[in-house]
Amino acid sequence: MKTVLRKCLQAAALLIVLVSAGPLWAVEPDEMLSDPVLEARARTLSEGLRCMVCQNESIDESHAPLAHDIRVLVRERLKAGDSDQQVVDFLVARYGEFVLLKPRLSWHTAALWGLPPAVLLFGIAMLIVVARRRNAAPGSGEPATLTSAEEARVAELLRSEGAP
Amino acid sequence: MIPELGHYALMLALGLALIQGTMPIVGARTNDPVLMSIAVPTALAHFAFVAIAFGALTVSYVTSDFSVLNVFQNSNSAMPLIYRFSSVWGNHEGSMMLWVSILALFGALVAAFGTNLPAALKAYALGVQAWIAAAFHLFILITSNPFLRIADAPPEGQDLNPILQDPGLAFHPPMLYLGYVGFSIVFSFAIGALLEGRIDAAWARWVRPWVLGAWMCLTLGIAGGSYWAYYELGWGGFWFWDPVENASLMPWLAGTALLHSAVVMEKRGALKVWTILLAILTFSLSLIGTFLVRSGVLTSVHAFATDPTRGIFILAILVLFIGGALALYAWRAPLLKQGGLFAPISREGALVFNNLFLTSACATVFVGTLYPLALESLTGDKISVGPPFFNSTFGPLFIPLILVMPFGPLLGWKRGDLLGAAQRLLGAAVLAVVGVAAAYALERGGPVLAPFGVGVALFVMAGAVTDIAERTMVLRIPFVAAIRRAVGLPRSAWGTAFAHFGIGMTLLGIVGATAWGSERIIEIKPGGNVELAHYRLTFDGLFNRPGPNYSDVVGRFTVRRNGEPVGTMEPTRRTFPARNEATTEAALMTRGASQLYLSLGDPQPDGSVALRLYYKPFVLMIWLGAGVMFFGGGLSLSDRRLRVGAPRPARARAAMAAAAAQPAE
User: Fold this and answer.
1) What pLDDT digit, counting tens, does each position of B55-98 carry?
2) B133-162 pLDDT, tens per residue?
3) Is A115 in contact with B381 (Cβ distance < 8 A)?
4) Residue B500 and residue B507: Cα distance in Å, rounded?
5) Residue of B nearest to A36 (CA)
6) Buried b / exposed e across B192-203, counting CB within 10 Å, b at 16+?
7) Chain A closest-CA separation from residue B397 CA (Å)
């Protein structure tokens, strides 16, 4: 798996050398497909695919030649009639999971996907535990509600204080 | 001579930091007022020497002294003065100098203005601040010395990275550092309180102005960086979930949580233990951010492995301070007494909700940023965690937070009336629903959820207005009386309303620009036209324009709206010969809160040029919202109640003294 990845990267590096004569820019006019529906799909897909030689950039935003190549590749696959899923699978098979900006849920990303909800649930659980412990302690708990007799007394006091 | 002076001043600053970090703490432990009082003059002197070192580096840059290696590598005599000045921190060594300068500045501010702080707490806090300073002085002197000389001074410098030659560099890093280094003082107060073993509501009152000030600067710093990226990178993105951005977002999220929990601690004496932990975590996240950005670990784990000196050093600082602080916390926190009780539905409850979701959101950003690094160094597997991950995890945590936000200020302390608050927010909710309906009716296309985003934003903004309307009773009592009430409202109440309103504005901008923005990417020849969202642009042609240390190829476009000319736009390709690099200078045309955004590709031999044109509805709201948040923070900071222990506006005092002395004027 690793050697495959390395070979791909080497091939990519070679491609960079070959194509780097052109203008360096994110999605270029000559790359775009004439069919607006396919082009829109290509753009959406591109936003989720990483330019592997860049720092955290999608191929849609990157100026790198490698990003250009993958953009063209994505469009070629779409023109050939691939579904979005097939295009992504093709790229993952070729470049490894590194190409996905949204990692798939698997055993080695379980902690990544699991942690945000886990932190929230842990926080809620802690709040409940703390509240329970406090309520269990004598002489504490929620501020007690007034009895009807006390309510009446308050109303009476307010009436006598009122009318300034 | 001047660089050596700076180098020497930095070493003296280290010495002073060591004194400031030991004597006052010994004094506080032995209850010796003389030793404790050493903290103030050493903190001031420490700042003075750091300022001399920083000044020496600045002079070297401004006078283009290329015998200094750092200046040679990052400056050029042809650069305009503002960039020669701001390139001081446009590199690793210089930005660390800015870091310690701001650290020393905060220490000096506490020393100078914290006159009514308890002596022991002040001694401890300044002592801890000095430990941090000493660690970073050592880091600079050992691994990142900006004052190194070259034996044969080259005649010209290598120029600053072209992307950094922008007014953004003068503004963004200092603001950002004022923010996240500013949290150091809160950290020092927290450690001081733990060492002293006494924390009460007064602690929160002393600390809150510092939290607020740091939060304000961080807010503006992040927004400034976002706007800079927006116009500089050439395709109109404003947030990339880049690890470097996340490094500043994490302290912001934790700092925002801290700001709110400190309110509970101050007013009700509750959440003490949690607030102290947040104070530690917020600055720890600042340190982690510094590590991420400064160690090179982000470029790749391998780049870090090939030259690990700097990275290991910061990692050691990180482990020492975060580990030490958390250990101290684990040891001391159980001794703290819990304060006031409250029902789940109450102002406190709403603030706890805020803290729960902000902390979870912060944890999400944390794990998303560090997971790929951790996974690669542990197993060698490479994965990418990018915007789609953050959008699908951060969003669901932030939306409930924003929806609950308007309720918080309307709930009473201890036990709130949820139904009453809901009734008072009915108007805001109706407005939000109308907004959703209008968004559906007016716009075709765009994500299905986008109108709900507009609804949430309107609800928050209207909720903030409702809060003020309720407090002033504007619709229930005569207008003049309501105005009188409005003037009499505590400034912090206005601050809350403004800051919450700003969040709504930012959300509206994000939804507008991402959901309903439109774009055209085409090749165009002189005389050609391009249309987008009611606008029609005519390409008049390309021309060259020389600059001080670059040359521009400028495209001129005439913009018409419904046939009427509304102006010209001049997107530019800027080439810097010193580094043989080019940047895209996008042209922006502001129409209300929306912008037309135009950037230029490389001109082709046949005279045509590739063009990216965007229409970004409401995009300016993103940064205006941050400005409103900053303003709200400022109002809150000027609240009389909070001035205890915070810098008093010296000018106001002087003015009052002058007025008292000369009543005739």
Assistant:
1) 999 999 999 999 999 999 999 898 899 999 999 998 889 999 99
2) 999 999 999 999 999 999 888 988 888 888
3) no
4) 11
5) B520
6) bbbbbeebebbb
7) 9
Ordered by start, the domain boundaries in chain A are 2-104, 108-161
Query: Per the CB < 8 Å rule, is A56 touching B386?
Result: yes
Q: Amino acid identity, residue B612?
A: R
Query: B154 — contact with chain A (CB < 8 Å)?
Result: no
- Which residues on A lie below 8 Å from B522 (Cβ)? 29
**Pairwise CB contact (< 8 Å): A29 & B521:** yes
Taking an 8 Å cut-off on Cβ atoms, the answer to whether B386 and A116 are in contact is no
User: What sign for the dihedral angle of Cα B257, B263, B266, B267?
Assistant: negative
- Round to whole Å and give the CA distance between A87 and A89: 5
- DSSP bridge pairs for B539: B557
**How confident is the model at residue B9, as a pLDDT?**
97
For residue B522, which phi and psi values (nearest 5 degrees)? -145, 165
Please, what is the angle between helix B272-294 and helix B243-268, to 10°?
Answer: 160
A120 to chain B, minimum CA–CA distance in Å? 5
Average pLDDT (B469-482) is: 86
Mean pLDDT of B422-445: 87
Pick the residue with more confidence: A137 or B246?
B246
- Which amino acid is present at B75? S
For A27, which residue in chain B has the nearest alpha carbon?
B521
Q: Across chain A, what does the average pLDDT equal? A: 76
C-alpha distance from residue A97 to each of A50, A84, A101, B299 (Å): 10, 16, 9, 19
Residue % of chain B over a pLDDT of 90: 58
Q: Are B233 and A61 in contact (CB < 8 Å)?
A: yes
The CA distance from B183 to B202, in Å, is 18
B515 and chain A in contact, CB less than 8 A: no
Query: How close B235 gets to chain A, by Cα (Å)?
Result: 7
The class that CATH gives domain B1-161 is: mainly alpha
Crossing angle of the two packed helices B347-379 and A110-136, in degrees rounded to 10: 140
d(CA A25, CA B610): 9
CB of B374 less than 8 A from some CB of A: no
User: In the prediction, which pLDDT does B655 show?
Assistant: 52
User: Residue A51 has what DSSP assignment?
Assistant: -
Pairwise CA distance, residues B187 & B192, whole Å: 8
Residue B412, φ and ψ in degrees, nearest 5:
-80, 160
A141 by DSSP, 3-state: which? coil
**What ipTM, to 2 d.p.?**
0.84
| B179 touches A: beta carbon within 8 Å | no
Which residues of B are less than 8 Å from A50 in CB distance?
A: 384, 386
Helix/strand/coil percentages in chain B, nearest 5: 65, 10, 25
If you write DSSP's letter for every residue of B435-497 in order, what string do you get? HHHHHHHH--SS-TTHHHHHHHHHHHHHHHHHHHHHHHTTTTS-HHHHHHHHHHS-HHHHHHH
Nearest chain B CA: its distance from A56 CA (Å): 6
Quick check: B393 and A2 CB within 8 A? no
HSE-CB at B351 with a 13 A cutoff on CA atoms is 31
Q: What is the SS3 assignment for B616?
A: strand
User: In angstroms, what is the C-alpha Rg of chain B?
Assistant: 27
Sort out which chain A residues have CB atoms less than 8 A from B363's CB and list them: 115-116, 119
Range A2-104 has CATH code 1.10.8.640: yes
Tokens of residue B147, six digits: 């004052």
Tell me B51's DSSP state: H
